[in-house]
């Protein structure tokens, strides 16, 4: 049995366009408190010294990444962007596992973290890493649902009002955040199988692991770790980051 230190890496998928955010450029490059959102998300990961390297996966023709990440330690940028978030993560895993530096081994841990979550607090990140290492199971940050949950009726026509079809019990429901932490080899196999099956349903790493029969750990996240998705999220996030950035 080996008692060597666990090796922990991070992948930041940053190959999206930010269509819902309504910005002219990919949202990960919008400035928040004077810094690109992507840089803030990477810095949040670098705050934990246990993360050996952060690998940022961007679109092949991305002209902004190098400037946004300039001078950050332990950070590399790779042209691995794919058509969906899951394809980008899979591309980044292949890239890291095939890296001639031998950067990533199948047994290494990988944390996958959205470029669109710049507010990840250090204590939440440490909680996730500690829990996954302690149980030797992968897991994710998440928040229990606090509001009443409604399922909407299907819309027959554009412009039709959206109505409630039914209320859904919130008991045992959690909202998934990132980072999500798994062993690189297991995550690669799970993503490959899941994407071959139904790529639309794979909106996070845990979904792929669940399909492969695993039960990822749910670790308490933070409301500060919200995802910047809609136009109004930039102002909200700037206010949340204000005292820290
Ligand atoms: N093909 C894609 C799509 C998304 N992402 C990344 O996945 C994260 C979460 O995705 P999301 O918030 O949906 O970002 P976008 O896809 O850019 O936004 P939208 O869906 O509104 O276009 C972001 O860091 C985004 O850059 C990615 O790497 N590759
Ligand atoms: C991974 C994620 O942030 C967990 O909540 C989320 O699923 C990303 O979803 P999106 O469709 O890429 O916005």
Automatic annotation (TrEMBL):
Its EC number is 2.7.7.60. The keyword Methyltransferase does not apply. Pfam families: IspD (PF01128). Keywords: Isoprene biosynthesis, Nucleotidyltransferase, Transferase. The record marks 170, 227 as: Positions MEP for the nucleophilic attack. One of its GO terms (molecular function) is 2-C-methyl-D-erythritol 4-phosphate cytidylyltransferase activity. It catalyses: 2-C-methyl-D-erythritol 4-phosphate + CTP + H(+) = 4-CDP-2-C-methyl-D-erythritol + diphosphate. Catalyzes the formation of 4-diphosphocytidyl-2-C-methyl-D-erythritol from CTP and 2-C-methyl-D-erythritol 4-phosphate (MEP). HAMAP family: IspD (MF_00108). This is 2-C-methyl-D-erythritol 4-phosphate cytidylyltransferase. The gene is ispD.
